[in-house]
Amino acid sequence: MTQTPSQQTPLQTWKTLARERVLQVGDGRFLVVENHTVELPDGQVIANWPWLVTPAFVNVVVETAEKKFLCFRQAKYAVDSLSLAVAGGYLEEGEDPLEAARRELLEETGYQADVWIPLGSYVVDGNRGNGRAHLYLARGARWVQPADADDLEEQELLLLSRAELADALRRGEFKVLPWATAVALALLHIAQEELPAGGLS
């Protein structure tokens, strides 16, 4: 007999019973590996559940006052090729995500924006942790000073139209998942703003 939603047992989360640090790279700022002991809702206990501790970060899709979108073309070690990228970086200890987004935008591009739209906060890996992504859309951005970034990669700053941004996303030119996610969510937000009152029928 099929249960209706009201008859189903409420879902429960897993419990962390213990955690053990098994690897720390350098001072632990960029990577710590832990083994967790977790208990499932049915009482089953799983030992040695790998867990990755990496820094939280921000990614920002930037629309200028002229309705162009700021992007970088750059190399990334894990991609092993060139990729389009959005602005972003790691949060400093105790830093608010929005303040980090404002700081990273100014450092990497020299732009500031007055309108900031949160696009969500997401765990990167649903089973292993691996940091949290805070995504934003910054609108009405204007250049105020030369960029002062400390990124290791060489970067080429591009100004794309909305159509060019959407085409690049469809072609897979944003080759890092949080970047592609941020662009898709930003384009979705802008499209929803343009819907008639009441949205889709």
TrEMBL record:
SUPFAM superfamilies: Nudix. GO terms for cellular component: cytosol. Keywords: Hydrolase. Its cofactor is Mg(2+). It comes from the Bacteria. InterPro entries: NUDIX_hydrolase-like_dom_sf (IPR015797), NUDIX_hydrolase_CS (IPR020084), NUDIX_hydrolase_dom (IPR000086). Residues 52-182 form the Nudix hydrolase domain. GO terms for biological process: nucleoside phosphate metabolic process; ribose phosphate metabolic process. GO terms for molecular function: hydrolase activity. This is NUDIX hydrolase. It comes from Litorilinea aerophila.
